[in-house]
Write a structure and sequence with these properties.
12 strands; about 260 residues; about 40% helix; 5-stranded mixed beta sheet
Length: about 260
């Protein structure tokens, strides 16, 4: 069996979950984040070209291509793990449906289940709805192994149509709403960043971290890399003043210009 997961972190937890009972199963992790950046073209070279505007990733093209080549060559049963409360995982799930184009596969939607988490007392555990496969503990994933469900032709067609719509819109971001994924402009998260800033100096890492938390209250909408990129854009636009190296969020500080309310 081939388990397909939407991130490396999900791969690590699932590997632990499978080790006791299904050690022979394979795991394949998707490295791209299709909730951000242009998607009109999904060619690996085009996606990598966009990512390299933000950081150096020399192996990305090979990693992206290798993922789809392994999917296309797989002859055993395929199980796709994802959560609809994560923009990254939801976008991947829709892109997956488009790529498979009617080829059979199974899914485990973790957001339709409840997940074990640690309670305030280390001896206690509580349950809550899982948001994303990428943040699940191995113990929680272990409970879901074997619960995969087949996908109907109607569901596949619906997901393919949704992905076609999003690709046509080709926005900078795709965010989760109660009705599904919606396109959003590049400045969508700027207000969250500005709300964490003050007219006194604050560490850039503090601003990004708080904005990340605010954006994740109901859904996992964006990663820290894109928030850092937007923070640097706000610096360039003069909406935030900066003290220090703007590319080192651990040491530089930012503040709202004087007179900002």
């Amino acid at each position: 069996m081939l388990h397909v997961v939407p991130s490396l972190s999900a791969s690590g937890s699932l590997k632990k979950a499978l080790s006791a009972h299904s050690a022979e199963d394979r795991i394949l992790s998707f490295r791209d984040d299709l909730s951000c950046g242009p998607i009109a073209s999904l060619a690996s070279a085009d996606r990598v070209s966009w990512w390299q505007e933000y950081f150096d990733w020399p192996s990305a093209t090979n990693e992206f291509d290798d993922f789809w080549e392994q999917v296309d060559a797989a002859e055993d049963k395929i199980v796709l793990w994802f959560g609809k409360y994560s923009a990254r995982e939801f976008a991947f799930r829709l892109a997956w449906a488009a790529h498979m184009n009617g080829r059979p596969y199974h899914v485990i939607d973790v957001s339709s289940r409840r997940s074990l988490i640690s309670g305030q007392d280390s001896a206690d555990t509580i349950t809550r709805p899982a948001k994303a496969a990428s943040v699940m503990l191995a113990e929680s994933m272990m409970q879901l192994v074997g619960s995969e469900q087949s996908v109907s032709a109607e569901e596949d067609a619906r997901n393919q149509n949704e992905w076609a719509r999003l690709r046509k819109e080709n926005a900078f971001f795709r965010i989760v709403t109660p009705t599904g994924l919606t396109s959003a402009a590049a400045d969508h998260f700027d207000i969250l960043l500005l709300q964490q800033a003050d007219t006194t100096w604050r560490k850039a890492a503090y601003v990004v971290g708080n904005a990340l938390g605010a954006s994740s209250e109901r859904y996992y909408q964006v990663g820290d890399l894109m928030l850092i990129a937007r923070l640097q854009t706000l610096m360039d636009q003069g909406k935030l003043e900066v003290d220090g190296d703007p590319f080192d969020i651990q040491t530089c500080c930012v503040r709202l210009p004087a007179g900002t309310h």
